[in-house]
């Protein structure tokens, strides 16, 4: 488990160094400072957040607590006071800052800290503290087990393939009693630093074993909120997709319903077209076929009274055929000459004498030349009578015996 923690800590350190080495932190600080000028001062104080550093320093006869960057102390606790009193004074002074934002740095006098500038190969950057720890005996006049040290990378120009770092070390005999005394007062520093005027130099000599383990509840809350936001985004996307799918299904159902209606309309239109075509075909056939009544009327008028017909046919092409008996069948050609509706009369076959009636039996063909109904507009009742005329028609005199 320790190896895993060390590996994860190493990765975090690499990410922090990469972040600090990038231009983004400087840009974000500049951008935030520029934007903050547009916010009222009261709002800036109300919504101010981030780390708030306090510097605690042991003087000759007292402990002094001040805000980093300020000269005047926030509170002072004399050594002659009881531990409970000093602890209460410190806690009351630190209560002005949110525990999540509060950071405490134990400030050591510059004379108690050895600082060395180192030029190291770039390969040592990933594990800087461990690399410098192996070389403490050469870089300091102390043994490694007798000092607490810290190392940081400096933003200074260096030869190619190297970088500049700073080593800070202080004897354990100097730092450990101060840390123990602060622990008795209920103060746990986050860093051991050196004063740089009223600010902090940025060093950290605090032993890793005594570094406070902070639980950043705000970060956890932000992480939880980020997870909730991601889940809500996915939920919104899923809801949107579900709504789109439901709308698509409704649209498909409407399309299928309209398609069924369209198919029914198309079927009805097809039936109507077929019915219209059939009725049109019959109307055309009726219009193209010659009318029977004018032919019968003229045939009845021109045939002699002693002649009757046994059979009468008239097809759609106007071909006329009739069979009957007459005393003198040869005169029928002359009787039909000059007819308006009957043309080209001629006998078919031979004329034979009927043994029963003694008359001559004949069969004649002719061409009906009657005007078509669209040219000759008959009365409304005449087409019905014409339809009743079957191909086999007999003359009113067919059964008379002359």
What does this protein look like?
A six-stranded mixed beta sheet has the order 3-2-1-4-8-9, covered by helices on one side. Strands 10, 11, 12, 13 and 14 form a five-stranded antiparallel beta sheet that branches. Strands 5-7-6 form a three-stranded antiparallel beta sheet. The chain is rod-shaped and about 175 Å long. Helices cover 42% and strands 23% of the residues. The chain contains eleven helices and 14 strands. A hairpin with an 8-residue loop joins strand 6 and strand 7. It has 402 residues and is α+β, with helices and mostly antiparallel strands. The protein has helices at 2-21, 24-36, 41-46, 83-94, 128-134, 136-139, 172-184, 217-288, 292-302, 332-336, 382-388, and strands at 52-58, 62-67, 73-78, 102-108, 114-121, 147-153, 162-171, 191-196, 199-200, 308-314, 319-326, 342-347, 352-353, 360-368. It comes from Luteibacter flocculans. Residues 374-402 have a biased composition (Basic and acidic residues). This is Fimbrial assembly protein. Residues 347-356 have a biased composition (Polar residues). Residues 341-402 are annotated as: Disordered.
- What characteristic shape results from the CA principal axes? rod-shaped
Rg over CA atoms: 62 Å
The beta-strand count equals 14
Spatial strand arrangement across the major sheet:
3-2-1-4-8-9
Provide a quick synopsis of the model:
The chain has 402 residues and is α+β, with helices and mostly antiparallel strands. 42% of the residues lie in helices and 23% in strands.
